[in-house]
Amino acid sequence: MVYSDRMISLKGVTKQYAKDSIALHDIHLTIEPGEFVSVVGQSGSGKTTLVKLLIAEERPTSGNVHVGGWDITDIHYRDIPLLRRQIGVIFQDFKLLPKKTIAENVAFALEVAGESVQRIRDVVPKVLDIVGLGHKTHRYPHQLSGGEQQRVVIARSLVHRPKILVADEPTGNLDTINKQEIIEILKKINSFGTTILLVTHDREVVNHLGKRVITLHNGKIIADEKEGKYRLV
Amino acid sequence: MVAFLRVFKFALQDIWRNISLSLMTILILVLMLLSVNMLLVIRVLTEEATNSVKDQIDVSVYFDHTATDKQIDEVKNYVRSFPEVTELTFLSREEVLQQFKDNYQYNPEILASLNELGDNPLGPTLVVKTREPSDYKKVIAALNVPEYEHIIEAKTFEDTEKAIERIHTITTQVERFTLILTALFAIIAFLIIFNTVRVAIYTQRVEISIKKLVGATNWFIRGPYVIESFLFSVFSVITTFLLMLASSRFLDPYIAVVFNRNAFLTNYFQSNIVFLLGCQFFAVLLLTVLTSSLAMRKYLRV
Fold this sequence. Notes:
The complex is a heterodimer. Chain A is α/β, with parallel strands linked by helices. Chain A has a single domain (8-225), classed as 3-Layer(aba) Sandwich (Rossmann fold), CATH 3.40.50.300. Chain A has seven helices and ten strands. In chain A, the strands form two sheets. In chain A, strands 6-7-8-3-9-10 form a six-stranded mixed sheet, with helices on both faces. The termini of chain A are far apart. In chain A, 45% of the residues are buried. Chain B folds into two domains: 2-53 and 168-300, no CATH class; 58-132, Alpha-Beta Plaits. Chain B has helices at residues 2-17, 19-55, 69-80, 93-103, 108-117, 135-143, 146-149, 157-203, 205-213, 218-259, 264-271, 273-300; strands spanning 59-63, 85-91, 125-130, 152-155. A four-stranded antiparallel sheet of chain B has the order 2-3-1-4. Chain B is elongated and about 105 Å long. Chain B starts with a helix and ends with a helix. The model of chain B has no long low-confidence stretch (mean pLDDT 84).
């Protein structure tokens, strides 16, 4: 393991799926602890590949990837679960376990990490209260609205108190009110010191945030502005 | 220990919350095991049938009435020395005469002619039984030597040779047929179980990938499936065995009429319970665990 001070650091990262399919090309990117960064770009610009590299779902073809001070470029297969327990991940399609209640879904993230029963009993109701779902703990995902499901996902990603939260199109399936709620929750989490990487193509959300914006186009970073706006090529 | 208990809890939860799929998997396992057990019953009954037919075949060696005890003993010892010979019954002249009289007790003319002769004209008889019908030929050939020519009057083998050969051919064919049928059923059972487990895993592929994304290790994901396989194997083997015992009790009276043996199938299943249960349990467990591991491998690469 090689440690660095940066929260996320990509050096010369290229990801090539096939001979003529380059998802990311020579990416150099650093994100400091506590930053709120939006990554924007059209479909196929490489946003999702970037997320996959950060959670070790994919490996770079070349270059180096550091997350939370951990060099995950050639991360060993058995270390991947450890990495994922340190990064909170939110997906557009929620990815909740359909046959588990929402309390069980949140508890599952702790159970896989071997947390004690007592701690799980303490933590799960608290995080569900934080996202405003403390009264629906025994509901199943299909009994909740899209916004509520996304809040469960946020609760699940928070139980490990991650230093980084990666949100891949978290508002993609939500209406305006729910979208605003989710962004407010993310801002609140960021205010506690958690680094947020928000991947989105929602102009309204990005412009409202007024935070750092990285624009991807054809697998390359074409803009990186400290208080940026949404703009595409 | 906590992790194991959690894995066990997830397995029970999965079974209960996917109850229709769980019941379907158990049902298919039971049907497959029933097919294999039915074949086993057919094999056992065929074996019993061929054995009882073989048991009724023997070869009688009729000695000349002038043959001395020493000569007869020599032949007896010689025949007994063959490893193929399973039973040797010696009937003395008196016993042969009594048997003859019993056989013809309703035929006064034959009995009258016998009385007219005065002396017992019949020689002693040696009844030989071998393991396989094909072995008789070997024994008879060994007795067809010049030194026994004058003491052995006749052998019944020539009369029954064709029948024995035919029975031998039939039993060999039946054994071959049931063996092929068993192999065929085993392959079909394997393919159906393989496919059932694959479908069960396929329906849960999204859940498997989600578990990986929230940081579950492979064994934490595989564990519940292994325990589910174990529980499915236990349920299906026990259910099959109870069904087979019930069917045996129903069939036994009919079988008793044919083989003259009471509770034949029930006794067979009860006396082989450990072996049959053990073999079937481990075969199903191995198959389900291997299949689920293979089917899951693809979805664990997240």
